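User: What would this chain look like folded?
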Amino acid sequence: MFKAEIKSDTLKGLVNVISTLVDEAKFSISGDGVNLKAVDPAHVAMVDLTISKGAFESFSADDAEMGVDLDKMKEMLKLAGSGDVIAMEQDETQGRLIMKVGNITRRMNLVDTSGMSDPKVPQLSLPVTVDVAVSELQRGMKAAESVSDHIALSADEESFELFCEGDTDSVSLKLDKTKLSGITASSKVRSLFPLDYFSNLVKAIPSDTVVRISLGNDYPVKLSFSFADGNGTVGYLLAPRIEND
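Assistant: Here's the prediction, encoded as structure tokens.
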């Protein structure tokens, strides 16, 4: 059993964060809230999302799993204005999710979760953390997207840098610690990543967010942030592209 009400802006943000990697999602529901772990089809990136019941206007649930077609949910969300409250209820008998926005009701078939994976989140001890406004990252990605298909992230005790180099041009966004919300580093690190993936993850993060970037040398990068007034947390992991010597 799952029955809840949530503000449309919160649900739109949640769906946007997940749908940048997958089209269908398996939500694990408990009396405390909702959790999701998913890996993109190429197994390059993953998302680990938790949203507590405090993010909802009302929330009542037993332990359950629910497979959702995110494109169908997006169609319903297009009908909701800012500030609208969306009601959701699981119809276990019919295997459907019922969504209500104002006087509109949609009953959508749930997705079979038996074939969906349960990815384990790797426990990484990364030596550098950088806290930066995502608007800065989004600005850097706009400059880099036409230059190359990969991007280098580097950091030391004093600064953080995005660097992208193509056949003829290069782009760099360098932020010293006065332009960052925080930085912790014991040494310099650098890793290379596929630019399209990194750009899509950055675009999915709400624009008023401070994101924590955790880095190592040729390790996955972790992007962590909160939403819904701290009632939701997201961790993205993106595999590195190992440079040839």
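DSSP finds four helices and 18 strands in the chain. If you want, I can go into more detail on any region.
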